[in-house]
Amino acid sequence: MKAAFRLLFAVGIACGLAGTTSAQDYPSRDITVMAPYPPGALTDGVARLLQPKIAEYLGGATILIDNKAGAGGAVGVGQVARSKPDGYTLLMVVNAPIVMAPSLQASLPYDPRKNLRGVGVIAETYLTLAVHADSPIKSLDDVIRMAKEQPGKLTFGSAGIGSAHHIAGEVLNRKAGIKITHVPFQGGGPAIQNLVGKQLDMSYGTLPTVHAFVESGDLRIIAMAEPKRVESHPDVPLITETIPGVETTTWLGFFAPANTPDDVVAKLNEALNYALAQSDVQEAMTRLGLVVRPSTPAELDALVAKDLDFWAEAVSTAGIEKQ
Amino acid sequence: MDLLTNLALGFGVAFHPMNLVYCFVGVLLGTVVGVLPGLGPLATIAMLLPLTFGLEPTESLIMLAGIYYGSQYGGSTTAILVNLPGESASAVTTIDGYQMARKGRAGPALAAAAIGSFFAGTVATVLVAVTAKPLTAIALTFGPAEYFSLMVVGLISSIALASGSLVKALAMICLGLLVGLTGTDIYTGAPRFTYGQFELLDGIDFVAVAVGIYGVGEIVRNLESRSGAQALIAKITSLWPSRDDLRRMIGPSVRGTAIGSMLGVLPGGGALLSSFVAYNVEKKTSRNAAEFGHGAIEGVTAPEAANNAGAQTSFVPMLALGIPSNVVMALMIGAMIMQGIVPGPNVVVNNPELFWGLIASMWIGNAMLVVLNLPLIGLWVSLLRIPYWIMFPAIIAFCCIGVYSVSNSAFAVYTVTISGAIGYFLIKLDCEPAPFVLGFVLGPMLEEHLRRAMLISGGDPGIFVTRPISGGLLLVAAVLLVIVSRPTVARRREEVFVEDD
């Protein structure tokens, strides 16, 4: 029944109930927020967590979450990029399809610089390099030494081709002059599962996927692939402290189509930051392994511009070909 | 006895009135979405997820779990009545279930599915309680090499799935493998068979293909002739299984449960693979082998028992490791996190009431399903009396809504349409869809694990025979290959084929 209902809604919106938009009477109808991954994915969870708080700030507006998955998020992002810039079609998404995909995919159905504008940063998370608790590898120095002794023999797991995990691993290979074999999985969870089952020598993994296994004594984090030491793990060294330049950033952002009016974007930014300031939202985010990072729209635009250049260089250093 | 104290704790939690209510709501919803073709537990759980945030963690997980195994029950109903797998795991139930319905034995077929599922559910509940820890350890020893060898066993045994020509069965498996390769190559990122379509980058949606090939194809075939259309309205002889039927259900229930319980634990294949394997094993071991494909009650009981057992044991890696064995479990993990429970090895220790309460509720939920479904058999069967000019358009409409809701994309509806056309031609060419579907499902997994194992071993194929579990599975595959190609079996296949004409 609900599916049928949502279908009717989608048709209704597609038929165009649009009017003129200004911040005074915005929102005057239902807002659709695209979370371009399957239900249950991190992005979907965050969108559904923020949905009631943002709706509350916008005077009880109805917000629909649209999960249009496909092509690593590109299908859903493309749909928002082509939408009418009236503030009624918005996007919540992780950084990958926005700042990484342009360096990895030859034909994207959008240009993040031209078709989207930032509403605000939502949160960030951290990428770790982990080994099994029984592993002889205790530190990054051990990794480099053993990889030099047996080139190509060690393996590292990643969340897939073109993931931050993969790029970090290949950049480490190039910059340290070593060869660790990349073993891609379909998502970060299966990679960590294979690390727990000792099928891999090491694996990259986001802090939330790795953390429970560290607590249970199955895994050990040897380093973080981050530019700054992580507040919750101040003792874990960074890869970049040993091999400069091996770093990644992972964040979630809230976007609107490029020509959405400034006052509407400003109102949405207020609503987002109001939601992020709620203590129950912050607690839930912490449980998801995310750290809340409120910002202005301009700060997100600047972050996107900086990261587009950063990933373009990292992908070329890693020697990954565009597809 | 630790186990008894734990189970007592679990039943104490599960029998709490509110938990009973949510358990009932879950299985009822599950049955309904299982019956609606294409609309699976995934879409339902996803839509209900936000509503569960206000509930207690145990209440919400009990309800979500109920939807999942309830849908396994419901999915078999349409599979039997109208040849439409309401849920992907019931695809194999269509083979004999639908034939039984055409012979007017829809009632016994539905009863066999319900009773087989209940038996499996009961055993699997106990099994999950007793063996959660060791089963988890087994699942972890399965690396890429073991998965590859398991897929080989699955593919070879799928040859036995076809009752018609061997050459056609092989051709269908190969076609399934090729179509399954559509999408992004996960080792290079290169798009394959996508022809520039973004929607194809993630591959072709299984549910859409299954609904199209089985459902739409069958409907079109039925419309060809008035008499064909009336095949659906075959006269119903009896609603309940005879004493002989019941006796024939015992063995398949036990074997199906054993297979489903083991395969359900493994991430990836899970319930779907277990129903295929259970069907094949039954076909090989049954004294009524010749009846398979023509309405054998064993061919309904075994896969139904297996997919229900598999659905329950797939909770083991989720609860004990925080690792999802399929997409529905990934959603359950999302629900746990939102409730403030960190999924992982510590759930049993930190949240014993949740862990044991959920397990106990599965048994209660299974009992509710039997009570709910057995009286409904009469109602479901009477649906067959609906004139086809109302029934067929309604089914197609539900199929389209169902597949649309999976990814909110019209592309899935096109997939159903094209698959339907292909399905119709396959029927006309006397090619059975089951080997195609198995090839479609196993092909990508076979490739993924083969290449991953080779990456890890540094290109040494020895990894498949030197690892004991993998080597053992390959041995089983070799033995199976010999059995399948033995002249006597081949002759029996011929006989079946001739009978068919």
Shape of chain B: globular
User: Which strand-content bin applies to the residues of chain A?
Assistant: 15-25%
Q: Please, how many domains of chain A?
A: 2
Give the helix level of chain A as a range of percent: 40-55%
Low-confidence stretches of chain B: 495-501
Number of strands of chain A: 11
Which features characterize this protein?
heterodimer, A: 323 residues, alpha/beta, D-Maltodextrin-Binding Protein, domain 2, 2 domains, six-stranded mixed beta sheet, five-stranded mixed beta sheet, 13 helices, 11 strands, 44% helix, 18% strand, globular, B: 501 residues, mainly alpha, two-stranded antiparallel ribbon, 23 helices, disordered C terminus
Description of the molecule:
The complex is a heterodimer of chains A (323) and B (501). In chain A, 44% of the residues lie in helices and 18% in strands. Chain A has 323 residues and is an alpha/beta fold. In chain A, helix 2 links the parallel strand 1 (31-34) and strand 2. In chain A, helix 2 packs across helix 11 (262-277) and helix 4 (96-104) runs parallel beside helix 13 (297-318). Chain B has 501 residues and is mostly helical. Chain B has one domain. Chain B has 23 helices and two strands. The interface between A and B is large, with 61 and 56 residues.
In a few lines, what is going on in this structure?
The complex is a heterodimer of chains A (323) and B (501). Chain A is an alpha/beta fold and 323 residues long.
Layout: helices, strands, pairs:
The complex is a heterodimer of chains A (323) and B (501).
Chain A: H1 2-14, E1 31-34, H2 42-57, E2 63-66, H3 74-81, E3 89-94, H4 96-104, H5 112-115, E4 116-125, E5 127-132, H6 140-149, E6 155-158, H7 164-176, E7 181-184, H8 188-196, E8 202-206, H9 207-215, E9 219-224, H10 239-242, E10 250-257, H11 262-277, H12 279-287, E11 291-292, H13 297-318
Chain B: H1 2-14, H2 17-35, H3 41-48, H4 57-82, H5 93-102, H6 106-141, H7 144-158, H8 166-180, E1 183-184, E2 191-192, H9 206-223, H10 226-229, H11 243-265, H12 270-285, H13 298-313, H14 315-321, H15 327-338, H16 347-350, H17 352-383, H18 388-407, H19 410-428, H20 433-457, H21 463-466, H22 468-485, H23 487-500
Antiparallel strand pairs in B: 1-2
